[in-house]
Design a protein that fits this description.
single chain, about 375 residues, alpha/beta, Rossmann fold, 2 domains, seven-stranded mixed beta sheet, four-stranded parallel beta sheet, about 15% strand, pyridoxal phosphate
Length: about 375
C-alpha cells in the first residue's frame, strides 16, 4: 500500500444537476462501425474489498472497436459530425465504405489533432476507415510505443518540442478548408468539435445502464472519472448528474498535471505549467477545456490528484480482478483508493454517502498501451512502485 499523501478538493455544497440531451442516433452510429460490441462491465471484488464497499463495477475499455482505449467513441462521432456539417447532408448509409464514397468529391482531406496517445490513434483510425489522411502532433515526452501505434494507422506523426498543450496550439494553427482539426479540448472560438467528442462518449453510459440492468447491478453511488482536459469527466457528469440521479462524481488527475484541481481551488481556469512528468500520459495536460469547466466546477463532488505510485497500485489491484488497465486507465481506481484510505477517510465517506453496502463505478479507460511498461509495473511489488 502506498503512503503518498494525495491533494484533494471537496465541493462546498451539493453538486449541480445538469440537463443534457444526447443525440438519439449516437448509439446507432457506433453500432455501424467495424467490430462494434459493448465493452465488458465486470465486478471487481478485490477493488471492492480495498475500498470497503459491497460492489465495484469496472467498465473495461481495453478493447474498443479494435483499439486499446475508449477514445474512438468520441473521435469517430466528432469526425462524422464535422464532416457532415462541412460536406453533408449525407444520404443514408450502412457501412463506412458507403459513407466514404460520399466524401470522394471533397478529397483531399486531412484530419489533424494533438494527442498524448489514445485520441490521436483514434482519429488516425477514423481517417483510415474513411480514406482520409491524418496528421497527428504529439509532445516530446511521448513513449515510442504510442508513436509507433499511431504511425501503424497510416498517419503522419510530428513530435512537438514541448508539452501536450503546445502540441494542441500547433495543431490549431494547421486548420484550413482541407485540414479538419479534431481536438478533444476546446479554446476560444473552437467548441463545436470538442462538444461532439464529449457527446460521443455517451455510448459508454448507455451500455453501462443496459448492462447493470441485465446483470442485476445497482446504480452506483459514486463514479470515478479520470481528468486530463476534462472531456470524459464532463460526459460522466452529464449522465450521472442528470435530473433524477444523485450519483457523486469524483475527478482524478496526476499530481504534476492537476489543472482541474488547481482551477477548482482558484475558482477559475488555472494553468499548470509543464513539464507534466507522469506515467499517466493521457492525463498530462496543463489546461482544462473551457467547454468542460462549467460541468467540472458544478458537477464534481470531489477532486483528487494522485502520484504515479498510486496509479501503479491501482493497476496491480485491477489486474487481480482480471482487468488489464494502463497507467491512465487505472487512475480512476487509484483516486478512489487514495480518497477513501487517507487519515480523514471517514468524513470523505460520509460526504460521498458511501457505506459497506454501496456500489461504485470505475471506468478503466485504456488497456496496456505501453505493454512493456505495463508488464514491469504489474509484476513489481509495492516496494518497487
Amino acid at each position: 500500500m502506498t503512503t503518498d499523501h494525495p491533494r484533494m478538493y471537496f465541493k462546498p455544497g451539493p453538486p449541480t444537476t445538469f440537463n443534457a440531451s444526447p443525440d438519439p442516433t449516437l448509439l446507432a452510429f457506433h453500432q455501424r462501425l467495424p467490430g462494434y460490441a459493448p465493452t465488458p462491465l465486470v465486478r471487481a471484488p478485490h477493488l471492492a474489498a480495498a475500498l470497503d464497499v459491497r460492489e465495484v463495477w469496472v467498465k473495461n475499455e481495453a478493447n474498443r472497436l479494435g483499439l486499446p482505449a475508449y477514445k474512438i467513441l468520441g473521435a469517430s462521432w466528432a469526425v462524422y459530425r464535422e464532416l457532415e456539417t462541412r460536406h453533408g447532408p449525407f444520404t443514408p448509409w450502412n457501412t463506412l465504405v458507403e459513407l466514404s464514397a460520399q466524401l470522394q468529391a471533397h478529397l483531399p482531406l486531412t484530419l489533424v489533432t494533438a494527442t498524448d496517445g489514445n485520441h490521436g490513434r483514434a482519429v488516425a483510425r477514423m481517417a483510415h476507415w474513411l480514406g482520409l489522411d491524418a496528421h497527428i502532433l504529439v509532445p516530446e515526452d511521448m513513449v515510442p510505443a504510442r508513436i509507433q501505434a499511431i504511425e501503424a494507422e497510416g498517419a503522419r506523426v510530428d513530435v512537438i518540442h514541448g508539452t501536450y498543450d503546445e502540441a494542441v496550439a500547433a495543431a490549431a494553427r494547421l486548420a484550413d478548408a482541407r485540414h479538419l482539426v479534431i481536438s478533444d479540448t476546446a479554446w476560444e472560438g473552437y467548441e463545436r468539435v470538442p462538444g461532439w467528442v464529449v457527446e460521443g462518449y455517451g455510448t459508454i453510459f448507455q451500455e453501462i445502464d443496459q448492462q447493470l440492468a441485465q446483470q442485476g447491478g445497482q446504480q452506483p453511488e459514486v463514479v470515478a472519472a479520470q481528468m486530463g482536459v476534462g472531456s470524459l469527466a464532463m460526459a460522466v457528469i452529464q449522465h450521472y448528474r442528470a435530473p433524477g440521479r444523485a450519483t457523486h462524481v469524483v475527478g482524478v488527475e496526476p499530481t504534476r498535471a492537476a489543472c482541474v484541481l488547481h482551477s477548482l481551488e482558484a475558482g477559475k481556469l488555472t494553468e499548470v505549467p509543464g513539464p507534466h512528468a507522469s506515467i499517466m500520459a493521457g492525463l498530462n495536460c496543463g489546461n482544462t477545456s473551457p467547454l468542460a469547466w462549467p460541468y467540472l466546477q458544478g458537477g464534481l463532488s470531489a477532486s483528487i490528484a494522485i502520484s504515479d505510485g498510486q496509479a501503479k497500485e491501482a493497476m496491480r489491484l485491477l489486474a487481480q480482478d482480471g482487468v488489464v488497465s494502463g497507467e491512465s486507465g487505472a487512475a480512476g481506481a487509484g483516486g478512489l483508493l487514495a480518497l477513501l484510505r487517507h487519515e480523514d477517510a471517514a468524513n470523505t465517506r460520509a460526504w460521498l454517502g458511501l457505506t459497506p453496502e454501496s456500489t461504485v463505478l470505475v471506468i478503466s479507460t485504456e488497456g496496456a498501451t505501453d505493454p512493456q511498461a505495463y508488464a514491469r509495473i504489474v509484476q513489481a511489488g509495492p516496494d518497487h512502485a
